[in-house]
Amino acid sequence: MKKRAIRKSVESAKLTPVPTDFKYEFKKIGIVVEKADSTMLSELLEALNTKGVKQSQVQFLVYSNDNKESKGDENFFKIKDFTMSGSTDKKEVLDFIGADYDLLISYYTSDSAPLLWVTAKSLAKFKVGISSVNTKGNHFCLEVSDLNVKSYIDNLFKYIKVFKK
């Protein structure tokens, strides 16, 4: 029931257009990943660093599909954090989606409702993702054959350079 409510919320969400005066300069970046891919966070931070993005400019949120209780879940969210109406009151998730990111990177290949919800509800100015996943919540998606972080970030910034012109 929760997943159905979350999907309905995702489907009704509208992607806001990129502001016309947006300069494609990224001072604040959000990254949403699945727990299975969270080992790539350090690679993502390193690849972004090579593009001039400092680690202090990046925040992340990780979706865990296990419902085990564990300590230190401040950057994690789970299906149990959602209500039957398809919303959440978990502070970390609300802070993440309400943050004024210049760029949101949805770095996941699963079509999981909670991940799609975070992407759809985020107030980020420019949202990018992976084309094998529901692309309606992103302004731009890159097709990848595997989750190669360096290649993804390199290609993303090549396209962003084109967008700037």
Key features of this structure:
single chain; 165 residues; alpha/beta; 33% helix; globular
Short structural description:
By secondary structure, this protein is of the alpha/beta class.
Would you kindly provide a written description of the structure presented here, covering whatever features stand out?
The protein has 165 residues and is α/β, with parallel strands linked by helices. The protein is built from 5 helices and 6 strands; from the N terminus they run αβαββαβαββα. β4 (103-107), α4 (113-121) and β5 form a beta-alpha-beta unit. α2 (41-50) packs across α5 (149-164). The chain is globular. The N and C termini lie far apart (46 Å). The model has no long low-confidence stretch (mean pLDDT 89).
Strand order of the largest sheet: 3-2-1-4-5-6
Q: What is the count of DSSP helices, taking H or I runs of 4+ residues? A: 5
The helix content, as a percent range, equals 25-40%
Strand content: 15-25%
End-to-end gap? 46 Å
The overall pLDDT average reads 89
Write the layout of secondary structure elements.
Blueprint: H1 2-12, E1 29-34, H2 41-50, E2 58-63, E3 76-77, H3 91-98, E4 103-107, H4 113-121, E5 126-130, E6 140-142, H5 149-164
Parallel strand pairs: 1-2, 1-4, 2-3, 4-5, 5-6
